[in-house]
Automatic annotation (TrEMBL):
Top-rank taxon: Bacteria
Protein name: Lipoprotein
Length: 85
């Protein structure tokens, strides 16, 4: 049986067990750099099976940037964004 079908079949059979039943996720990461800059980006997506809420989905993205000016000054910024449904 394909993996996705097993996940949904398990989700349909497990609601009576109580509490958090399980989580599955995937993460990706990307790094880029050049003269005077570095950028790292990570993305994570997670599906959770919970007897109280059923199937839930959360997706998060984190972007970190670092720039070095000609004077040597370093500027850094980080952005986190998540959404759930």
């Amino acid at each position: 049986m394909p993996t996705i079908l097993r996940t949904f079949a398990a989700a349909a059979l497990l609601p009576g067990l109580g509490g958090c039943v399980g989580t599955a996720g995937i993460s990706t990461w990307d790094y880029r750099s050049g003269p005077g800059y570095e950028t790292a980006r990570s993305q994570e997506s997670r599906i959770q099976v919970d007897s109280a809420q059923g199937l839930t989905h959360e997706a998060c993205t984190r972007v970190s940037r670092r720039q070095v000016a000609a004077s040597g000054a370093v500027g850094e910024a980080e952005l986190d964004a998540c959404r759930s449904h």
